[in-house]
Description:
This protein is mainly alpha-helical.
Amino acid sequence: MAVLFPKALRPAALCFTMGMGTWLFACGPHFPSWLLSEGDPAFLRAPWIRLKSEMRALIGGKPSPYKAVEARKDRPTQTMEVALADLSQALQSAGYTRQEQQAIQTQHRQQREIIHRYRQAQDRWESMNQSWFPNPNPEPTLDLMPPTEGLPEEFADYLKGAIAYHRNQFPVAREAWKKLLKLPPSKRHYRSTWALYMLGRMQVDRAPAEAIQSFQTLRKGVDEGFSDTLGLAAASLGWEARAAFNLKQYDRAIELYLEQWAAGQDEPSAH
């Protein structure tokens, strides 16, 4: 039934109707045009996500008890500086005279600088050595170094293992680091974590179960108070995850990778 308006009200009714029309949609709400142009695949495609946001959701509010050490410099430089700082503290704690400390630190610094330069040269050489274009230059080598007289035993054992490791003498390196771990706990406060970390690193792909044991022993040692100035407990989480992955323990690997990320770990090195 038609609604009749008095002639005097018809202009007002028309204006009201036209005004209301501005609030009416002739179509639906705005949507991206690619939903029309791409058809069904656009609806069936998996949604985009931000990996870090999803990882935070998986971690929840559970922090890691281990904290990574921020890599302010390249890894060889960071390792050398931490090694020298640890030695300085160890010598002071052991009651060495100032003259003895200076002599030992000077010689040990020279040895660490040789390793430092070798590692930098090795990194440069490897960066230019590709499977499709081998590096024509000879691979750098690490010269044999005389031992530092008066160097605390844990530092001497670790250094011996590090030199052997860089010279690809892996059995010698393992023997030196295992010898270090047989010292009384009070005599290996600074280098237990380093030795366990490297022993684990060496076995991740060869003997992953053994590597896992080394990494777990490392973190237990940190919990008990052993020095970890390089943040190797946090780094061990990722390497243990790789070992677990090699053993097809995928759930455990995911847990460890998430904890490593929660610890803020940026791969350090204890070479």
